[in-house]
Amino acid sequence: MPKYVTIPVEISFRNPIDGAPTGEKMNFAEFVRSKLMVHPRWMQSYADLRAAHAIDEALTKAKDWMLLDEAVHKKLAEVCEAPAYQIMGPMGPQTQNGLIGVPPLVAPQLLPFFDAIIKASESQPEKAS
Description:
Number of strands: 6
Number of helices: 4
Oligomer: single chain
Radius of gyration: 16 Å
Helix content: 25-40%
Order of helices and strands: EEEHHEHEEH
């Protein structure tokens, strides 16, 4: 069954220490492409590479929501729910936790984007007015 991901509004970042606006913004497509799609998970197999391509195509077409095949959505949700990955270090494989380029104090500001993916619906959302 396909999954519909409602596209959240753009995020305006705040300093995690004092709450002051930083002036930096990110939209949903930027989040997916720059934070989720750089995860090594997308190069583990041909099926993963095809899923990454399907996500990029869906983002390109998206307006109010993004439509994903259930298997593709599952892969994307897995990266959101458990973004750990392995790298080869001088002492062998090492697990890296978190998303590439997302400091732990900033990550909570991205929750609307994570939630949109994880809580995707099986029914088409109403069109935004």
